[in-house]
Amino acid sequence: MKLRYRGVSYDAEPSLLEVREGEIGGVYRAQNWKFHYPRHMPEPPPVNHLKWRGVSYCTGNATVTNCEPVTDSQPVAKSIYTVAAKTSIARHRLQKVLNESRKAHLATMRQTLEHRLEVAKAKGDQNLVRLLEEESKEMQPI
After folding, report:
1. Three-state DSSP state, 4
2. Which residues contact 128 (CB under 8 A, 6 or more apart)?
């Protein structure tokens, strides 16, 4: 099919993916529409185990998180244990980062609240001062 967009002509290639019409649909600008699903999922690209500047990585969908292929010299149970240990370490590091960011966020909120309180006192807005002091009491650690 010959198409044209902004003065550029091109041939449209039909999709090679077979689709089926789904049950989900509706009306948009007085036109009926249905969601389309692929009949067959395309085959995922192959997994390649590569190394760049000493860092291993994978292309494609690797089933093992460390991206290293399991060989005969490396038993499966050992590789599963290694992956579980690395996952546990990563989870611990993530929790540590989350706790630090939570503390930093709380400190920033306190500084902002104190600044707002100072501005309210300088303007003489007693109602806002009272509200900000109540908010400050709620933020105090238990």
Report:
1. strand
2. 120
How many contiguous H segments (helices) and E segments (strands) does the chain have? 2, 6
Radius of gyration of the chain (CA): 29
Distances in Å between the Cα of 13 and the Cα atoms of 1, 7, 134 are 7, 19, 65
Query: Splitting the chain (142 residues) into consecutive groups of 10 residues, what average pLDDT does each group show?
Result: 85 76 88 81 66 76 52 50 68 85 88 92 93 85 55
pLDDT value at position 96?
86
Classified as helix, coil or strand, 94 is helix
User: Which residues on neighbouring strands pair with residue 34, listed in sequence order?
Assistant: 25
Cα–Cα nearest to 84, from 64, 69, 68: 64
